[in-house]
Write a structure and sequence with these properties.
The chain has helices spanning 2-11, 28-38, 51-59, 71-80, 102-113, 127-135, 157-165, and strands spanning 18-21, 42-46, 63-68, 84-88, 118-121, 140-142. It is of the alpha/beta class. α2 packs parallel to α3, α3 runs parallel beside α4 (71-80) and α4 (71-80) packs parallel to α5.
Length: 176
């Protein structure tokens, strides 16, 4: 938690949200409470059952976005009270597990969500990618890997350089 506190002090802005991967945080409700005490009001939850943390965030006046990889996960996130869902296709860097390309997943999730905002994620790197997602009904996009090589990203310079020097065809999907 010292790491989280240090990073929050750098941002120190209530308009900055925090993303949490739920399956690696056994005490997620306590972590959310602590972050909200610091001033965090917007959360993005991924990989795990978000129901308990969404209830906690909502009770304290915050917002919850939930990253999903399947229509079934979208149904669960909506039932739990998410304020928005993030439909992440298999093109996403980092963690991903859908096995479904964004172009197939997004329309299904948009239909399920009704008036609920849906953000698109996974392989969004260009203006035309954004236009395609919005054209399929996304309210916006979430971009991740594209920013991995920035100074703010916490990784080794050599790893960032390797990303810059390679292209999308060099991606290998693993289970880790």
């Amino acid at each position: 938690r010292a790491w989280m506190r240090r990073e929050w002090e750098i941002a120190a802005n209530p308009r900055v949200g925090v993303g949490l991967i739920l399956w690696v945080i056994p005490d997620a409700v306590e972590v959310v409470d602590e972050l909200m005490n610091w001033g965090v009001r917007t959360f993005c939850f991924a990989f795990g059952d978000p129901a308990a943390v969404i209830d906690r965030v909502r009770a304290r006046g915050g917002r919850s976005l939930v990253q999903i990889n399947t229509p079934q996960e979208a149904r669960s996130a909506l039932a739990a009270g998410a304020d928005a869902v993030i439909a992440q296709g298999e093109e996403a860097g980092g963690h991903g597990q859908s096995g479904r390309p964004l172009r197939d997943l997004l329309p299904a999730v948009v239909e399920l969500a009704g008036r609920m905002p849906v953000l698109a994620a996974g392989g969004i790197t260009t203006r035309s990618d954004v236009a395609a997602a919005v054209g399929q009904g996304a309210s916006g996009v979430l971009v991740g890997t594209r920013f991995y090589a920035t100074d703010e990203a916490l990784d080794l310079p050599a790893a960032k350089q390797r990303l810059v020097e390679t292209g999308p065809d060099a991606t290998t999907r693993t289970s880790a």
